[in-house]
Design a protein that fits this description.
six-stranded mixed β-barrel; mainly beta; single chain; 5% helix
């Protein structure tokens, strides 16, 4: 039975143990690109007074996992997103299924379509449910576990995903939210349409 624990950083957390791993700093460079650095010292001096601290959070399920939550990876990993503005990338799910996805810092959790869930062999009829805050209000969605999500070589393991056929998705099958992104320190370079993932401290 799937434990009903889902990361919802801005809205709702169900039965989870949150551990703060430290701070990262969000800042904007002279070209207007948003960047996130792991240390304040890595932010240019003329930008430090406008850098915003961000908590790095790891969410663990009730079970005391002993395996790592992020796979070995080169450091750093840079991924080009396309088209400009939407942060669309290609992602591999469970090492088996490759689909187009959108990186979204405004989404609390990964969301996948019912077709992608079926391609991964998930039986959503037996899945637990979670509540998501959307533009149309609170909705319920089935929850499935993903063994591995790989975005351009940045791997994260044992992630929960809500199953929901979101509107306006086009050829996109998933939204990759903060329960993936918070496993890393990442920088978004809007000028070059590139996101760079760095290993978070202690991982």
């Amino acid at each position: 039975m799937i434990p009903q624990t889902v990361i919802l950083l801005a809205a709702l957390v169900l039965s989870a143990d949150l551990r703060h791993e430290g701070l990262a700093y969000r800042w904007t460079d002279v070209d207007g690109s948003v960047r996130i650095s792991g240390r304040l010292e890595d932010v240019p001096k003329d930008r430090r007074n406008t850098a915003s601290p961000m908590k790095l959070v790891t969410v663990r399920e009730d079970k005391d996992w002993t395996e790592p939550f992020a796979a070995p990876m080169p450091n750093p990993v840079s991924v080009h997103f396309n088209p400009p503005g939407s942060m669309a990338v290609e992602a591999m799910f469970n090492g088996l299924v490759k689909r187009n996805a959108i990186l979204d810092t405004g989404s609390e959790t990964i969301i996948i379509t019912s077709k992608l869930a079926a391609a991964l062999g998930a039986d959503i009829r037996k899945a637990g449910k979670t509540r998501l805050r959307t533009s149309k209000g609170i909705v319920e969605a089935p929850v499935v576990f993903l063994d591995d999500v790989n975005v351009g070589g940045a791997h994260a393991m044992r992630l929960e995903a809500a199953v929901m056929d979101f509107p306006g998705r086009g050829h996109v099958s998933a939204i990759i939210g903060m329960n993936f992104l918070s496993r890393f320190v990442f920088e978004i370079n809007a000028r070059d349409n590139e996101v760079t993932f760095h290993k978070a401290a202690g991982r």
